Amino acid sequence: MPKIVNHKERKIKIAESTWNVIVREGLENASVRKIALEAGLSVGSLRHYFPSQSDLFLFSMELVSDRVQKRIENTEYNGQPIEIIQQALSEVLPIDEERSIEMEVWLIFSAKTLVDQKLEELSQKVFIQMKTGIERVIHSMEQLQLLRSTINKEMEVLRLHALIDGLAMHHILYPKVLTKEEMVHTLTYHLQSLCVEDT
Asked: 1 versus 172: which is more confidently predicted?
């Protein structure tokens, strides 16, 4: 009886193998042959699922985005409102091994978006989704009467977005200089600076 192959699981395995090769050897060395070897497949089998390197990179990048979104949707957060907001925003910070790999891969792929239209379109889509999520955070803080009345909400969305991206990138590049604990502390400090004094 022939073995039944779960094609979705195999595509995910190939994408995860792509992440591993990229993190270990860099994007420029992530050849189809190396990725196939990492996934335990032949080059022909890999090309059956991803005819081009662009297709493979696009799916791998989409998988990063999907994993982050599902984690946010499926995690039950506990604590005071500001703590819950901090925990949710930390889903896109490299605070553990899983999220570190996701962020490192995403940053590496981001350079590729300059020359690959499909990746650029996905990157822009995720950027807008992130911005929309932060807009909801600021709106929720206002609804919960946490936000200071003098806050410029539009500017704070841009600033919080830039802060999160900067923290993630700086930790990936300089993990010994900006630690995981400092990332979370900086985010919490910033959120508290937006709140009324008795929060």
From this structure: 172
Phi, psi of 147 (to 5 degrees): -75, 135
Query: Which amino acid is it at 162?
Result: A
Question: What Cα–Cα distance (Å) separates residue 45 from each residue in 41, 74, 133, 194?
Answer: 6, 33, 38, 52
pTM: predicted TM-score of the whole model, two decimal places: 0.85
Surface-to-core class of residue 191, CB atoms within 10 Å of its CB (0-12 exposed, 13-18 middle, 19+ buried): buried
Using a pLDDT cut of 70, give the percent of the chain over it: 96
135 contact partners, CB below 8 Å, separation of at least 6: 157
Give the residues across from 147 on adjacent strands: 195
- For residues 49, 52, 58, 60, the Cα torsion angle rounded to the nearest 10 degrees is 50
Q: Rounded distance, CA 177 to CA 183, Å?
A: 11
* Beta carbons of 161 and 134 less than 8 angstroms apart: yes
Other beta carbons less than 10 A from residue 123's beta carbon: 19
Q: Looking at the domain 53-193, which fold is it? A: Tetracycline Repressor; domain 2 (1.10.357)
Length of the chain: 199
Of the options 3.40.50.720, 3.20.20.450, 1.10.10.60, 2.40.50.140, the CATH number for the domain spanning 1-51: 1.10.10.60
Render pLDDT for 26-51 as a digit per residue (tens, 0 to 9). Answer: 888 889 999 999 999 999 999 999 99
pLDDT of residue 136 exceeding 70, the answer is yes
